[in-house]
Amino acid sequence: MFAIPLGDGAELRPLEPWQAEEFLAHMDRGRDFIGRYVGLPDITADLKAARDWLQVYADKAAADTGRLYGIRLDGRLVGGVLFRVFDTASGTCEAGCWLEPAAAGRGLVTRAVRVVVDWAVEVRGMHRVEWLVASENRPSINVAKRLGMSLDGVQRENDPYRGVRQDTEIWSVLAPEWRAARSGGALR
Could you tell me the pTM of the whole model? Predict the structure, then answer.
């Protein structure tokens, strides 16, 4: 299995169904923190649900419609990044992330997303990478900004999350913008 170093003892690796127990333990450590803005902890509440969710992404990878990677810090699973949508016909994909609280504030998500966006644009030829985020999720919005994404707009009260309607911001970066930022050293 490959591992891409992210620096500071962190690395990015595929996250697969056979790792369901480890994934569930990671989710249990960060369930409340991760669940503030995303439903992943709610849909992976037990071992079967965790394995099933990981299998969905294994199937997406096999169909070339999505990808899932774990972020490890000193060998321990602490978060992940994914392509929830990966549409090669349209050249558009949607990236996302999550992180447990012990790993927050270290730049791990920014570094991991930079790796997968670079792969999507440079290797797979994606033209547009989207980042959908709850308007109140400042850390995730800051990741989008650090990656040179632009705010396309806000879907007002579109997501009834845990009984409360929340706004979703749509951020994106286009392949020419990504390449220009990379070559100009603008990606932090």
Answer: 0.94
Please provide residue 63's backbone torsions phi and psi, each rounded to the nearest 5 degrees: -90, 0
| Phi/psi of residue 124, nearest 5 degrees | -95, -5
111-137 tens-digit pLDDT: 999 999 999 999 999 999 999 999 999
Q: Which residues are bridge partners to 130 per DSSP?
A: 94, 172
Mean pLDDT over 153-174 rounds to 95
Torsion of CA 134, 32, 27, 51, to 10 degrees: -70
145-154: per-residue pLDDT in tens? 999 999 999 9
Q: Find the radius of gyration of the CA atoms of the chain.
A: 16
- Output phi, psi for 107, to 5 deg: 80, 10
